[in-house]
Amino acid sequence: MGNDRLLNFAIKYGFLILLAGMVVYFGLAAPGFASPRSAVFVLQSVAITGILALGVTCTLVVGGFDLSIGAVATSALMLSAYAMVVLEMSAGVAIGLCLLMGAAVGLVNGLLIVKFRVPDLLATLGMMFLLIGLQRIPTQGNSIATGMALPDGSTAEGVFSSTFLWLGRHRLDLVIDNLVPLPVVIFLLIALGIWLFLGFTRQGRLMYAIGSNERAAGLVGTPVNRYKIAAYMISGVMASIGGMLLAARLGRGDIASGTNLLLDSVAAALIGFAVLGAARPNAFGTATGALFVGILLQGLTMMNAPYYTQDFVKGVVLVAALVFTFYLSSRRGTGRS
Fold this sequence. Notes:
Shape: globular
Number of helices: 13
Order of helices and strands: HHHHHHEEHHHHHHH
Largest sheet: 2 strands, antiparallel
Distance between the termini: 14 Å
Radius of gyration: 21 Å
Pfam families: BPD_transp_2
Number of strands: 2
Structural class: mainly alpha
Transmembrane segments: 12-34, 40-62, 69-87, 93-114, 121-138, 179-198, 229-248, 260-277, 283-300, 312-329
GO molecular function: transmembrane transporter activity
Helix content: over 70%
CATH topology: ABC transporter involved in vitamin B12 uptake, BtuC
Keywords: Cell inner membrane, Cell membrane, Membrane, Transmembrane, Transmembrane helix, Transport
Subcellular location: Cell membrane
CATH class: Mainly Alpha
């Protein structure tokens, strides 16, 4: 009985203990890591990744997976820049176009998966390549900035709206004087909303039921296809929000800026399986996973670890977290049987 209690404790709180231990270690080993400014920088660095990861979480809940989120985010970044700098549209129109684009991509992904029976990984991988190519065509692969030369020989005269830039650069006077970036607040609000939706609404419980046993959920009258399509549309919209916030922070349409968004957001969503022993996708775990990745990268950077080792370390942490979760969970199940 004592071993069972210890095992249950390790499954439920082991990851959080690891997270706390990592914070303590970096706080002692890296000067300045424990400062408020460093904490705000960590939150800022994980806000966009976390928003994308929450979208991935919704597809994982229904038993799917979305590989196109990084491409959707970069497409939203480029689309918002193109709309304001090249087409000289307002911030409101640019934001609306990006949200519609994200929802449309999610709709197409969902239809490919539920109507045409294309496996989710292949459907979203194909969409990823399609978007990567499509976003480069209008500017022939160049980033977008005011004054740039366009393919037709003209010059881009538009500028980023100050309202749009406010979304990515404004800092709120919360807890730390004028240091909390608005994207962090947006991330926390989205995380809270998705946590409440998945955990406390009938629709969220039905999405979990679909992910657990799609056939059984369908037999009791659940509109499985509709919920799966909705999950991919949510993912697309979340990715477009992340892309817009990145564009607002950079103030230009940098085509290479979203390179690591897919890997980091997927890592955060999967690490979330280990938080509180959930062993399933969940919004709280995803947000914690994003924070874990941000703290890890910030600590490694402040300790002057070579940049080329960071992906390796992230991979090790991800594999360890998943093995820890599912191996110990299987041991618990074996012990009880």
